[in-house]
Amino acid sequence: MSKPNLARRVAEAAEIALTTRKYVTFIDVVTGLRWLHSRHVDTWRQGRAATLAELAAVDEDRLLATAALLKEWALAKGLRPVDTPYVAGTRDRRELRFTAAHGQEPFRVHWLSPDLSEARVRRLTEAKVPDLVAVAPLDAWTCASCGDTGPYLIVEDDSPHCLTCADLDHLVFLPSGNAALSRRAKQESGLSAVVVRFNRRRKVYQRVGLLVEEGALAAAEERCLADEEVRLRRRERDRERRAEQDVEFQARMAAEIARLFPGCPAERATEIAEHAAQRGSGRVGRSAAGRALDEGAITLAVIASIRHLDTDYDRLLMSGVPRMEARDLVRERIEGKLEEFRR
Fold first, then answer.
1. How many angstroms separate the first and last alpha carbons of the chain?
2. Taken in order 141, 143, 144, 147, is the CA torsion positive or negative?
3. Ramachandran sector of residue 293 (left: φ over 0; alpha: ψ -120 to 50; beta: rest)
4. Confidence at residue 1, expressed as pLDDT on a 0 to 100 scale
5. N or C: which end of the chain has fewer CB within 10 A?
6. More confident residue, 241 or 62
7. What's the farthest any 2 CA atoms get from each other in the chain?
8. What's the average model confidence in pLDDT over 188-200?
9. Has residue 303 got a pLDDT over 80?
């Protein structure tokens, strides 16, 4: 890839992150470039990889060049650089390394928008100790210290250890599902760990619960019982607020579809926006690019609608045609419909 082309792609990925969160990190860019998946970043943050570079699809020199291009773009945008520590979610809280052959400073910088509030700037710049991470493994494993096994493992010195050897076997498991109880149990517990499990279908580590002290869990349950009615009323208000936000976002997406595809009927644009931006769907409208109303994400949403509603794609899948082959068969029809919508 030529340097001008790489610079353009870096700028596009950085712009999406800046629009979405009002700050940009090196990790935002390399995941936006598809050189790293979020599961690779999770593995690295858990301390299960020596460097981030060993998980990337490109070499260390390309990563360094990307960090330099990000710096050029950020300075031209007037963003504020803040050096941010990256610490592993392991017992030793060791510093995470991005590469083995280069200094870590170019990769640690967070580029902040001048529009960020002072309160949010303080939260972003404060050194935050990461949660200790315990993994609920899917496959059989053995402890590097005692040779035993168990339902959870802790990574120390790049090796798995059981809770007994990690001095965490006095903790009890609190499954996810009750945000208030989890938050309060963690506050009450002097020692805790976030439990994650790898989702093979989505290919990401997902939080499944907490390990907390038994007394802390009992105290948290008492606090939750004391103000349960108040929290129910607050949840209802939050639900209404989120519904209003969804309607507003879908309207903005529909307007952007109409701008990019003026030949698309207004009702169709609204249907595409409602489908693509549905909360919790995992569709393109809920991605970072979709929330930023990126042109590429909007186009993908329109293409998905055309594929299912204006071609034989679904019938081909039902008849046993492989997915990628079916997409090739309907590609010409999709391009024709896109041109019709663009006119």
1. 33
2. negative
3. left
4. 57
5. C
6. 62
7. 69
8. 92
9. yes
Do 46 and 88 touch, CB atoms closer than 8 A? yes
Going by C-alpha positions, the residue among 17, 19, 43, 20 that lies closest to residue 30 is 17
Q: How confident is the model at residue 102 (pLDDT cuts 50, 70, 90)?
A: confident
How would you write 173-228 as a 3-class SS string? Answer: EEECCCHHHHHHHHHHCCCCEEEEEEECCCCEEEEEEEEEEHHHHHHHHHHHHHCH
DSSP-derived secondary structure letter, 310: S
Report the distance separating Cα 202 and Cα 220, nearest Å: 32
* pLDDT tens per residue across span 44-74: 988 888 899 999 999 999 999 999 999 999 9
In angstroms, the CA 314 to CA 323 distance is 10
Per DSSP, the three-state class of 97 is: strand
pLDDT at position 105 is 93
